[in-house]
Amino acid sequence: MRRLDGSVPFRGGGFHPRERWIAGAATLCVLIAFWQFGTWAGFLPTLFLPSPVAIAVTLWRLTVTGVLWQHLSASLARLLIGWFAGTFFGMATGIAAGLWSVTRSPVMAVVSALFPIPKIALVPLFIIWFGIGEGSKIATIGLGVFFPTVIATMGGVDNVPRGLIRMGQSFGLPTTTIIRSIILPGAAPAILNGFRVTASIAIVLLVAAEMIGAEQGIGAFVLSAGNLYDTDALLAGIVVLSVLGLVVAGLIGALERVLLRWR
Amino acid sequence: MSHGVRLILDEVSHAWKTLRVLDGITLTAEPGEVMVVIGPSGCGKSTLLNIMGGLLAPTSGSVRTEGAIADDCLNPLTYVFQDFSLVPWRNVRDNVGLVLRHKLTRDAVAERVREVLALTGLSDFGDAWPKELSGGMRQRVGIARALAVRPACLLMDEPLSALDAQTRDLLLDEFVTLIGRAATTTVYITHNLPEAVRLGQQIVVLSRRPGRVREIFRVNRPLTGRSADDPDLKNLEHTLWRIIRDDAAVAERERIDAPA
Lengths: 263, 260
Ligand SMILES: Nc1ncnc2c1ncn2[C@@H]1O[C@H](COP(=O)(O)OP(=O)(O)O)[C@@H](O)[C@H]1O
Ligand SMILES: [Mg+2]
Fold this sequence. Notes:
The structure holds two protein chains of two kinds. By secondary structure, chain A is mainly alpha-helical. Chain A has helices at about 20-40, 50-65, 65-100, 100-115, 125-130, 135-160, 160-170, 175-210, 220-225, 230-260. Chain B is α/β, with parallel strands linked by helices. Helices cover about 35% and strands about 25% of the residues of chain B. Chain B is built from seven helices and nine strands; from the N terminus they run βββαββαααβαβαββα. The model of chain B has no long low-confidence stretch (mean pLDDT about 90). At the A-B interface, α7 and α8 of A face β5 of B. The complex binds adenosine-5'-diphosphate and magnesium ion (MG). Magnesium ion (MG) binds near residues 45, 46 and 157 of chain B. Adenosine-5'-diphosphate binds near residues 43, 209 and 260 of chain B.
């Protein structure tokens, strides 16, 4: 026998991280400030790692001369066309695989066989098929986006509560209405999650494809800057890519807030 | 002005793979009457109701309807679900509208939605999301949606069993009024005996799995006049309990073969 006297000790709490964007922004500022200080003080060699101020100046110069926009617009066009094409066909395929037995196994087989192939390894093949121009780059991005979209969409469709689909059937709703009003919105959270992944994949593939064969585009710009040991320009290009990633993530977040208001 | 249909089940049997769930069920729900089906859990009540409404094809036997339906009836056999089955990304108004849109003009949809929300006391909740509503309010939406299509036969699968006891009593009273007014044929599944005697005009007792019709009781008393402490109804409740008690005890100890 032991005695248990006294107040009950607190043992809950924790395991509940909260988002504080101030903390995130402050961390980035501190890192950049440290970096700037390091180049000033001389322990970061500026040829290898130019200072943030130098990068900002280069970025400004590239902007006012229009060089940046020239490359960025070429990249954005490829990114948008490739991503939308991959997303459109990926969602259609994913819905079909999620809904019907005749499509499910064939799609699964093809996805399992082709998804693991690094899409970048296919760029030379695509150049043979579609030429060195836009076609091969868009195809690379589209294919890279396609497979994760199929998987995310199919998973989303699988997770739509069957009871809701039965409800739709029991009220005699047409199949198109069931797909549009029950299955697609029900799968939307998973599909939007997939967008986050595919947007990043699209940017990675964009840059890689542009490095293999392009005159224009951020990837080509970064590569040629590297070849000239112009690290200011090289990092300016990388900053642009990073900002592009942030903007895309922000857009998807906004889309989620609108489409998933009901949650 | 009864516009219910007669619903006839003829020797309906069903098996899930090798599990025999229903065995030779022959029943008739008369036009405008409330047929209550009770039985121990797992005896196949939900399976039976899904067969009645054409959501599930029975292994053998047939289901048919007889009678005329009103011109404004959009979905003769209409369910009210135990889990409400509301679409979480549509507000109350659009949940009801969803089942009308494919048949009616936009104005007609709005008109019917307004009417059934008023009928179920939901007029102020048209903009509410399902997640903002209590269980009782959600099931009111389920009822509103079902009434909106002017059904000839309501199929209700334990519509109150997801609710707490007080809400259940309140909603049961509303059901009595609404079912009485809609004058449809109603098949009401429950394992709650007070609900059964309060609503049933025909009470069907199923045996434990495989479900067979054990006994049928008729209560010739209008729904609206029934009170909870009517001695005849209390007696009937006790009789029902005696009949299903042993089955319920056995069923409760049976292995559950698949999620219901
Ligand atoms: N989709 C299904 N697949 C296989 N077995 C099922 C399925 N649905 C129900 N069952 C089984 O059929 C039996 C009857 O289920 P159900 O009709 O839901 O009973 P009740 O509604 O009377 O509780 C149960 O044993 C259940 O496990
Ligand atoms: Mg059930």
